[in-house]
């Protein structure tokens, strides 16, 4: 399907039996501290293939060993490296306003202290079912109350996955600092929540985006 949708863009696909991290290893008995979660070697064939495709092709789809959404985002950010000025993230069912990207980038350009920016996410079909209606209420509160209040104090703690944008490493020195895909609690690896966590550096833009729910 990916090849069909992007047939005019010379798409590329790659199946990686691993990802950027080796399987998590629990701490040895009697050891102090959490277990190990290490990156694969820079010469890993899968890593080299993914980075070559991402940096030379416009449309790339990578299937990799499951590691959660954070691991997927880690692959994208890491493979891009310093080859781009900005990174735009959205869900597969996100419908962007035509001006969304320009509005997001404008916020990033206006204030170098801003490390990431998100938009106003809404449900496209709020009256089709109780699920979509309740989701639309939750989205409204999240973006128009919670994040608006946090933004007033310049400390938005979470940028929502359906629409987020941040500067690339060559634009912002803090970019590599939030790439850890898991956190460890009591020596057990836990995937971080499904949104990009950037405390104290994010502010929302006034951009419309809609999401379709069943």
Number of domain modules: 2
Number of strands: 9
What is the string of helix and strand elements? HEHEHEEHEHEEEE
What's the helical proportion of residues?
25-40%
Question: Unreliable runs, pLDDT <50, ≥5 residues?
Answer: 176-214
- Straight-line distance between termini: 20 Å
Pairing-aware structural class of the strands and helices?
Answer: alpha/beta
**How does the overall form come out from the CA principal axes?**
globular
Summarize model confidence as the mean pLDDT.
Answer: 75
Helical segment count: 5
Tell me the radius of gyration: 19 Å
- Estimate what percentage of residues fall within beta strands: 15-25%
- The strand line-up of the biggest sheet is 3-6-5-9-4
How many strands, which pairing sense, and closed or not: the largest β-sheet?
5 strands, mixed
Subcellular location: Membrane
Protein name: hyaluronan synthase
InterPro entries: Nucleotide-diphossugar_trans
GO molecular function: hyaluronan synthase activity
Sequence-ordered SSE layout with sheet pairings:
Elements (H helix, E strand, L loop, with lengths): L1 H4 L6 E4 L29 H12 L3 E4 L5 H12 L5 E5 L3 E3 L3 H11 L5 E8 L6 H23 L10 E5 L14 E4 L2 E4 L10 E10 L3
Parallel strand pairs: 1-2, 5-9
Antiparallel strand pairs: 3-6, 4-9, 5-6, 7-8
Describe the structure.
This protein has 2 domains: 1-24 and 40-80, no CATH class; 84-213, no CATH class. It has 214 residues and is of the alpha/beta class. The protein is globular and about 45 Å long. It is built from 5 helices and 9 strands; from the N terminus they run H-E-H-E-H-E-E-H-E-H-E-E-E-E. The two termini are 20 Å apart. 29% of the residues lie in helices and 22% in strands. GO terms for molecular function: hyaluronan synthase activity. InterPro entries: Nucleotide-diphossugar_trans. Its EC number is 2.4.1.212. This is hyaluronan synthase. One of its GO terms (cellular component) is plasma membrane.
């Amino acid at each position: 399907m990916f090849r069909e949708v992007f047939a005019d863009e010379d798409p590329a696909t790659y199946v990686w039996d691993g990802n950027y991290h080796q399987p998590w290893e629990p701490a040895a008995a009697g050891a102090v501290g959490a277990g190990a979660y290490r990156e694969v070697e820079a010469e890993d064939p899968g890593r080299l293939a993914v980075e070559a495709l991402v940096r030379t092709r416009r449309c790339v789809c990578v299937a990799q060993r499951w590691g959660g959404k954070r691991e997927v985002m880690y692959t994208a950010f890491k493979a891009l490296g310093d080859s781009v000025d900005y990174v735009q993230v959205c869900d597969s069912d996100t419908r962007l306003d035509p001006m969304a990207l320009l509005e997001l980038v404008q916020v990033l350009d206006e204030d170098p202290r801003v490390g990431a920016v998100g938009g106003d996410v809404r449900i496209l079909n709020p009256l089709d079912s109780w699920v979509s209606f309740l989701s639309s209420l939750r989205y409204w509160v999240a973006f128009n109350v919670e994040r608006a209040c946090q933004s007033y104090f310049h400390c938005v703690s979470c940028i929502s996955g359906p629409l987020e944008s941040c500067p690339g490493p060559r634009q912002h020195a803090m970019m590599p600092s939030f790439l850890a895909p898991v956190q460890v609690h009591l020596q057990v690896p836990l995937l971080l929540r499904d949104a990009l966590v950037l405390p104290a550096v994010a502010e929302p833009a006034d951009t419309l985006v809609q999401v379709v729910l069943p």
